[in-house]
Amino acid sequence: MSSGPSISSNPFNTTLTEAEIRKKRSRARWRLALIFLALVGLTGLEVYLLQERSSISDNIPVLLLFNIILILLFLLIVLIVRNFVKLHNERKSRILGSRFQTKLIVAFLTLALVPSILLFFVASKLFSYSVGNWFSFQVEDSLQQSMEVAREYYSYVEKQSHFHAQQLEKQITGNQLYRQEKRVDLDQLVANKVVDYNLGALFIYDNAGQLVAARTHPDSKLNSEPEDFLSLIRASTGDERISEVRSYRGENYLSVLVPLTQKVEDGSTVWGYIVTLSEIPKSSLMKIGNIQNMFEQYKKQSLLKLPVSANYYFTFLLITLLILFSAIWLGIYLARGITIPIQQLAEGTRRVASGDLNVRIRLDTTDEIGILVTSFNQMTGELQENRKRIEQANEDLKSTNFELERRRNYIETVLENVGAGVISIDKKGLVTTFNNAAKRILGYSKNNPMGSTYKDAFPPSFHDPIRQMIRKMSRENSRLMQEQVEITLGDAPLNLLVNLNFMLDHSKKYLGLLIVFEDLTQLIKAQKVAAWQEVAQGIAHEIKNPLTPIQLNTQRLKKKYYEDKVTFSKVFDESIDIITQEVEGMKQLLNEFLRFSRMPTPSPRATPIHPLIKDVIRLYEGHEKNIRITTRFDPNLQNLFLDPDQIRRVFINLFDNALDALSAEGNIIINTWLHSDTGRVRIEFSDDGKGIQPQNREKLFLPHFTTKKRGTGLGLAIVSRIIIDHNGLIQVRDNHPRGTTFIIELPVSSSQDIPERVA
């Protein structure tokens, strides 16, 4: 018998070795052998001591049960005392679970104490009642009266036999039938009286023990010899009457011996004996015997009333104590079965909290506690694996952070040294990045613009352009936009090329705004100077060309005037015509430049683009060149917000350039697409003419640049100016297999803001 699981020195290694298991089994076998020997020895000693005192020594199973209870009680007391000592020491040492063990033991004791005491008292009362009934006055009086009845029955039969013998004695004595000569009469008297008195048999002996007369009842099975009653005669002394019960062939008879006396001078003398046999019914004799046996047994057991009662009371007390101590031991066993794993779990938790994740609890059980221990071991295993992964992740994170820090430093260095201004604003409107170039361009004099609002960080003139660009990006559902804006710092204008970008994370969540801008003021000034220099050179070249024939014709007029006056009039008319023609050409050239420089601001309105293109196409129907014009219009494209007169001029210029590039015949294809996601329209104007040289594409939209023998070079410059004024974009590329394609992109929105032209 075990007292429950015990705490080993190492609570995390409860698995026993083979040697420990064999040693434990050997100790258990020795204990069982000692218990068995104690049981046999104690039972044998009790049988020996009680065999002469009472019949309880014959009831071996009762003694065995009593001894088993006694031994179990002794073992339980030893175990409980041992565990209580352990529990006391654990409570003094404040070991985890000792208080819980105490509560559980008290609970089990309380649960077992009340019913056990109740059972003890109820059983005691029932036993007392039963014993009282067994040994009650009524039972004893009934047995006593039964014995009296039996005795009276015997006395009655005996008295009747004595009476019959006396009557017979009187007749024999009175008639002197004891004489030898009257033996015949004596035999006749005996024969008659056997029948009259309903005797089983009748024998008459003389004083010497010799049979004088004998007769057996005709219905009797008695077959006795006279010698059978000699013992009664020898036992009789004087005139004493003797009676005893005898059995013959399964029948019971009462034998009564009565002496026959004869009076003499000095008294009386015995001259013979009468023996009568009276039949007793077998059932009556058995009942009388049972009554006698019961009465004798009752007398014996009444002597054992107090020992038996004490024995049963003591047995009840042992059983009650056995239940109580079993409950205590069960409470201890269950408490230790719970608290020891809890102690192990607490120790394991403490070690896990201290950082030791190698701890494992080994407990051979499959109940809920075992499930809890298994879950703890799984948890520590997962924690150990997670810690390894975390440590590896930390190492990777350190390496990543180091790399990120290096890249951040590099990016900050780049941002601080880049010539473009870079500003980032979070979704709350606070500045998170403001590099040196931004400070320099915007003339920022504060020490630290970081964390301030964009209204405080930006010049007031920079607010509206940024807002307009944000509105356009929202309308066009675009993340990126580039525009050239003009702001004022103090009294000086500032031209900026601004790139605006919405910053989104991987889930498309808005993070803030990124503004990248460059100062184009000096560049635009330089470009204007260079452009006007190139225009001036072109104008000078175009003016120089007609000045040469004017000069030559003037010299010719002078020469003819002095040398040949006869033909002077003819030469004069020709020279004047040439000079007039060249002057008209110069005038036309100046008018073209004047119109280019004075191009009006667009007046946009909702205009259907496809009918406008068709109107331009009708102008070139029936042209001397065999030109095939093909259109592929997007049916989803309806109205655009534009200036129809300026856009018509764009398409006329494109048609003119295409016709100049085509030979006697060719193809012109016009395609339109509506991009709903960006809110823009794409128009492609393609021809299969001779195309444009790659080195000339960059100069194609500059004023005065032309590849024609005659022309001002302002047509495509005007086209580019109109498209830009409409917030659009124009590009040129090769058409396959040959020719040129002009690509125009225009916004669809009817609320587009047409920017003011920068001078």
UniProtKB/TrEMBL annotation:
Q: Which residues cross the membrane?
A: 32-50, 62-85, 105-127, 312-335
Q: Where is the Histidine kinase domain?
A: 538-750
**Mind listing the GO biological process terms from this record?**
regulation of DNA-templated transcription
A Pfam match is: HisKA
Where does it live in the cell? Cell membrane
Please give the catalytic activity noted in the UniProt record: ATP + protein L-histidine = ADP + protein N-phospho-L-histidine
Every copy of the PAS domain together lies at 407-477
Xref: SMART domains: HAMP, HATPase_c, HisKA, PAS
SUPFAM superfamilies linked to this entry: ATPase domain of HSP90 chaperone/DNA topoisomerase II/histidine kinase, HAMP domain-like, Homodimeric domain of signal transducing histidine kinase, PYP-like sensor domain (PAS domain)
Which EC number(s) are documented for this chain?
A: 2.7.13.3
InterPro entries for this protein: HAMP_dom, HATPase_C_sf, HATPase_dom, His_kinase_dom, HisK_dim/P_dom, HisK_dim/P_sf, NtrY, NtrY-like_N
Coiled coil location? 376-407
Q: What is this protein called?
A: histidine kinase
